[in-house]
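PROTEIN DESIGN WORKSHEET
SECTION A - STRUCTURE
LENGTH: 539
TOKENS:
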């Protein structure tokens, strides 16, 4: 069985802590733990007794060390010490890196040394693609981001990723680092919007002449572990589907509002595309889940329903146009039931809630604001309960560590941030902070899940360029999916066995797509959370 690394008895946010916010550390020892400042002076703090954390099988408590002044501190225990730092903006670099991580996922262009450093490569995937259903049609569709550790590109996940970025900028522009050294830096547009536009330009190309959007642009199979420019198998435009069409409609309507101040012509183009997509949705109400055509084995991204995608689209179209058609549609879809605290590719009801609560506001009306706000606040209590029940403060049930467990954790952080913004409740904000701490090291694995950061960091993500480029360090700024004991490969089960707890079901090796893959739509909610906390907090 795999000899699992248990880690130190004190776990911290390995990228430091912010002045003005509580400093949390996970303690796994019954022995005396003392907090000392740079002069050696003992500082008081309170910690609850250790309790069993069901997800990790650790006996642990999360201590609140208070709001500390900038400086270096040491947590001392007989079983080992841990150094932590406090500063004004400790997370600027990692938040910026998470945004630039998407630049390294760019397809169809050269990554030049002046922007990519050692992680350069020539342009990739520039040959025309063939329409799967009509092989006489070929279209040259370039750009966009490689979706994950593979080289496929998918409309629904891409639209959700862009939406996370656009709302991060709309709500927390001061928390979004700029001048990220991407090709567009310095053009007068914030770099988070520059990067999002690279994907938007690709999404626009994926629209069929009747308004519908193709589900994805991929090969028939995943490429082997080669560099992207060496992946020369034919690409295919897979059939259209209502769910990605609705997600693209929503994303483009949102983009039309964001980019209007920077490029009116582009904003008009995105809105027109969104309107054409909505017309197709209006005329195609039957939903059939996407199925991979026979012989195709790339990412499925099948959704059980498109009602959440249509709800999000109606909300964004209402915000973009103010037209009553969209209000009526949004109210009807909301009345059918929506999960308002989920922000992943498979359930985008939370993005509709974001639009209603923070974009439309009270002008959304009684149903889409007053009632929806009450509903959202009630649903987001569940995230807080999950955090409070966890020994590490992690907002995830012990039996829900599935593929990409970082996504529900970051989604719950987003929900609690939204709750805090609406209500001013510090307990919601502080619970969201614990999810950020989780991503950066305060977890059962004592690992920072973001490549390039943390003293104990992910080094071998399931990511083809990081494995094939011959460079020891992986591409920086990519967040690992994290522990997963639900949908595991046989080799993962062989390494970890049956008794490894869910929160430790993680293999830090390249083969482990089931626990250590990266994905653009895992980076993006972390960007939203990072942008919120990468600001100045005063009490």
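SECTION B - SEQUENCE
RESIDUE ASSIGNMENT:
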């Amino acid at each position: 069985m795999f000899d699992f690394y248990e880690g130190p008895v004190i776990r911290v946010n390995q990228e430091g802590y912010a002045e003005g916010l509580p400093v949390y550390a996970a303690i796994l020892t019954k022995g005396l733990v003392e907090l000392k400042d740079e002069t050696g002076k003992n500082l008081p703090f309170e910690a609850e007794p250790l309790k069993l954390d069901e997800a990790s099988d650790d006996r642990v408590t999360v201590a609140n060390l208070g709001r500390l002044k900038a400086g270096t501190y040491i947590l001392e225990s007989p079983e080992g010490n841990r150094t932590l730092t406090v500063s004004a903006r400790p997370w600027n670099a990692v938040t910026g890196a998470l945004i630039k991580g998407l630049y390294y996922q760019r397809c169809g262009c050269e990554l030049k040394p002046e922007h990519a450093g050692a992680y350069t490569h020539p342009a990739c995937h520039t040959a025309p693609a063939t329409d799967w259903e009509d092989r006489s049609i070929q279209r040259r569709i370039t750009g966009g981001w490689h979706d994950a550790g593979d080289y496929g590109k998918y409309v629904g996940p891409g639209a959700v990723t862009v939406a996370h970025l656009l709302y991060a900028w709309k709500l927390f522009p001061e928390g979004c680092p700029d001048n990220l050294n991407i090709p567009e830096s310095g053009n007068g547009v914030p770099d988070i919007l520059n990067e999002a536009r690279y994907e938007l330009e690709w999404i626009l190309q994926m629209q069929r002449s009747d308004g519908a959007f193709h589900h994805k642009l991929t090969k028939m199979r995943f490429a082997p572990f080669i560099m992207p420019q060496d992946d020369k198998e034919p690409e295919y435009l897979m059939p259209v589907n209502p769910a990605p069409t609705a997600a693209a409609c929503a994303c483009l309507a949102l983009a039309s509002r964001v980019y209007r101040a920077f490029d009116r012509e582009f904003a008009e183009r995105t809105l027109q595309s969104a309107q054409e997509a909505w017309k197709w949705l209006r005329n195609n109400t039957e939903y059939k889940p996407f199925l991979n055509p026979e012989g195709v084995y790339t990412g499925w991204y099948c959704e059980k329903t498109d009602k959440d995608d249509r709800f999000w689209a109606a909300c964004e179209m209402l915000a973009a146009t103010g037209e009553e058609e969209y209000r009526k549609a949004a109210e009807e879809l909301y009345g059918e039931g929506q999960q308002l605290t989920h922000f992943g590719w498979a359930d985008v009801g939370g993005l509709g809630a974001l639009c209603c609560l923070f974009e439309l506001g009270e002008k959304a009306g009684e149903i889409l604001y007053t009632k929806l706000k009450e509903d959202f606040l009630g649903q987001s209590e569940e995230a807080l309960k999950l955090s409070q029940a966890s020994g590490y403060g992690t907002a995830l049930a012990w039996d829900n560590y599935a593929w990409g467990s970082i996504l529900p954790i970051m989604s719950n952080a987003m929900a609690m941030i939204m709750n805090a913004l609406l209500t001013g409740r510090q307990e919601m904000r502080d619970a969201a902070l614990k999810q950020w701490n989780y991503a950066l090291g305060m977890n059962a694995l004592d690992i920072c899940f973001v490549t390039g950061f943390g003293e104990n960091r992910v080094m071998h993500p399931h990511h083809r360029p990081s494995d094939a480029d011959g460079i020891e360090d992986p591409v920086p700024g990519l967040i690992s999916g994290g522990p997963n004991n639900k949908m595991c490969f046989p080799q993962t089960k062989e390494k970890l066995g049956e008794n490894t707890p869910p929160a430790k079901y993680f293999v830090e090796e390249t083969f482990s797509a089931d626990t250590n893959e990266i994905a653009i739509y895992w980076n993006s909610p972390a960007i939203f959370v990072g942008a919120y906390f990468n600001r100045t907090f005063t009490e």
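SECTION C - NOTES
The longest helix spans residues 365-389.
The first strand starts at residue 10 and ends at 11.
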